[in-house]
Amino acid sequence: MKARVREWLRRYGPAEVLSILATLSAAWLTFRLTRSYAATALAGTWAGNVAYFGYILTLDIWQTRRQRHAAGLAYTGRTLLRNLRALVVEFGLAEVFDSLLIRPALMYYLPRALGSLSGGILLAKILADITFYVPAIISYELSKKRLRRF
């Protein structure tokens, strides 16, 4: 179990750091420009997603290219599609609920309830991450044997 937790931390940890920075930056900038909690919640959600999934996809492509190169195989468009399919399986269900409902709602209400934009956004991110990672990690573990062999 310790090995799995280390694997999850190596996979998701750097993406989380980037996501937190992007979320807070986008939320702060959007709120400063618009004074709209709704726009702030959406900007924070989507900026965090772009940073998070951009990192994860880059990591997967890099690892797959390395594996294929070691086996004397090229990284092709078809391989990229397989990488993308694996990500959809890993994150699809979790992401639908997270990005369309849970995270924006928390990022809208918590800053107002706490009276702190940064504190509310950060707490919203942490709470939303809990509901996101349970199905994402389960899907990742189930997909490793079948969808992550390149």
UniProtKB/TrEMBL annotation:
Domain of life: Bacteria
Keywords for the protein's UniProt record, in alphabetical order: Membrane, Transmembrane, Transmembrane helix
Membrane-spanning residues: 12-31, 37-62, 83-102, 122-142
Protein name: GtrA family protein
Organism of provenance: Hymenobacter lucidus
